[in-house]
Amino acid sequence: MYKKLFTLLFAVAPTLIFAQDKGLDEKINDWFMPIATAWEGFVLATVPIGSYNIPFVVILLVAGALFFTIYFKFPNITKFPMAINTVRGKYDELDHHESGDDHTGMSIDGDVIGTIKDESQEGEVSHFQALATAVSGTVGLGNIAGVAVAIALGGPGATFWMIVCGLLGMATKFVECTLGVKYRDVDADGTVHGGPMYYLSKGLKERGFTRLGKVLGIVFAVLCVGASFGGGNAFQSNQAAVQLSSLMNLEGGSTGVIIGVIMAVLVAIVIIGGIKRIAKITEKIVPFMAGIYVLASLIIIFANINYIGDAFGLIMNGAFTPMAGLGGFVGVLIVGFQRAAFSNEAGAGSAAIAHSAVKTKYPASEGVVALLEPFIDTVVICTMTALVIIFFNINGTDMQSVFAYGGDGNSNVILNATGEAIGGVDLTSQAFDSVIPGFSYILTIAIVLFAFSTMISWSYYGLQSWKYLFGKGKKADMTYKILFLIFIVIGAGATLDAVIKFSDAMILALVFPNMIGLFFLFPKVREEMVKYVDAIKGMKA
Predict the structure, then answer these.
(1) DSSP assignment letter at 65
(2) How do residues 375-421 score in pLDDT, each as one tens digit?
(3) Sign of CA dihedral 253, 259, 265, 268
(4) What is the DSSP letter of 409?
């Protein structure tokens, strides 16, 4: 199967690389833009509240996150120390057990035979590996390009609402990832299948809503496959291609496609290995690339420490009294929440797929680990990116603003001071380069790694959903992986505006079936949390 996959990729690559049609990127974009626009309009349908038209999905996200935060007594604060200790392995002995006979040296597909029984009971990866895989799916170009789009379109005030969304999203992530572990399916060989499609169908069946659970599970799986093609794939390859093209001064109508084909080949090498190989890759890549990015952000923040008060002043003032032309207070709130939701995916349920594979007897243990994701992703990294961009626009060139807040008013296009369109990743790159000359080269490496790790994580999310829909056979796997790789090329060849419309809508569409399920099943999370807390108390006694 995999020989066929690589044969297809390497057969297509030369044709695209040596193509004489310099408008290939443009043709892909012309085909893709109407689809993206139509889908965005459907998912982001608004409801009138007073004088404002607010996307219903944003209302659902905010209401759900606020409810879970209050119901679970602010787990984003009270459970934070427990989350750190769980990731550190302080409570690992709760999951220790006998592994059966020791068949030294014998293995199947890299698994020691004596441990296969354990994995069938408890999962495939550690708490840290599950967190790293899930974080790699969320900490990506949404933090680099997405934040730039939020600040440019919504002004500095959008930062405040991104932080609020991140803090509230911690509770939602806790709920959905606890359920992901509780209702997962485990094959006899230890392979785990989990995520919202499973807790929607199995959990709602327990509550007596069998038909509703089946429908919601199928709807989620279909949308998750689409999201894996969009936000988890096309957006990542698009911004990586933009950054590489800009850095190397590559021109030509097929440049994006060529880069997309190369990235598709590299992704294919990893995704054929399944969750264990993905986890091993992400647990190494994520800390490395996040460390580089955070360090550079801190350097810029300290270099502009004299402006820190001005920056936070702009953030707070812009959050409640936004500048003219930004759509008013609710407009800025929507931009902030929408970009934060795209970045940390709390409420979308996607991360529950990765967390479901964890080795644990206590579902709530992974729920508390998962609440760290929105904090790392949005509260820390997105805020750092926002400050870097705000500093950049405060300083400008000869003290002139680099770009005008509000964009072109009609799309996700960012305009510089001379009215020229610039991409989200271009803006962030310029901001870093203004303080750390030449950092755009290092940022390019980070961007490619961010894109790469996000794509391989989302390939796992999409594949699990595909298997839920079409079965667990090799042909079904092959079909999905080919489609996934094709969308890497499509994303690299399209424009940011088209890709971000499609990606936003796909990620946010997951909220509808997922949040319905969470509202039915959150009492189960409370039961699991009590079990885990009691187990920890018993261990300490």
Answers:
(1) H
(2) 888 888 888 888 988 888 876 544 455 667 765 555 555 555 555 66
(3) negative
(4) S
Question: Using CA atoms in the order 500, 504, 506, 512, what is the torsion angle rounded to 10 degrees?
Answer: -170
CA distances (Å), 424 to each of 139, 364, 378, 421, 492, in order?
A: 16, 37, 17, 10, 14
Say if residues 205 and 213 touch (Cβ distance below 8 Å): yes
Residue pair 430/245 in contact by the 8 Å Cβ criterion: no
User: Which pairs count as long-range contacts for 89-95, CB under 8 Å and 24+ apart, including other chains?
Assistant: 89/127, 89/128, 91/365, 91/535, 91/536, 91/539, 92/127, 93/539, 94/361, 94/362, 94/365, 94/535, 94/536, 94/539, 95/122, 95/359, 95/360, 95/361, 95/362
Q: 72: which 2 tokens?
A: 């679970």
- CA 316 to CA 313: how far, in whole Å? 5
Q: How confident is the model at residue 115 (pLDDT cuts 50, 70, 90)?
A: very low
pLDDT at 540: 65
What count of other Cβ atoms lies within 10 Å of the Cβ of residue 102? 11
In this predicted structure, the answer to whether residue 304 has a pLDDT above a threshold of 50 is yes
Tokens of 136: 């790699």
Is beta strand 421-422 parallel, antiparallel or unpaired with respect to 414-415?
antiparallel
**Rounded CA gap, 79 and 85, in Å?**
10
Long-range CB pairs of 402-405, under 8 A, 24+ apart, other chains included: 402/427, 402/430, 403/152, 403/427, 405/151, 405/152, 405/153, 405/154, 405/155, 405/156, 405/323, 405/325, 405/326
Report residue 114 as tokens: 């004596």
Task: Please tell me the distance from the alpha carbon of residue 534 to that of residue 103, in angstroms, as a whole number.
Answer: 35
Query: Over the stretch 461-496, which tens digit does the pLDDT of each residue have?
Result: 888 899 999 887 788 888 898 888 888 887 777 665
- Tokens at residue 23, please? 């408008």
Strand, helix or coil for residue 248: coil
What are the structural domains of the chain? 2-97+124-540 (1.10.4160)
Angstrom distance (rounded) from CA 448 to CA 339: 20
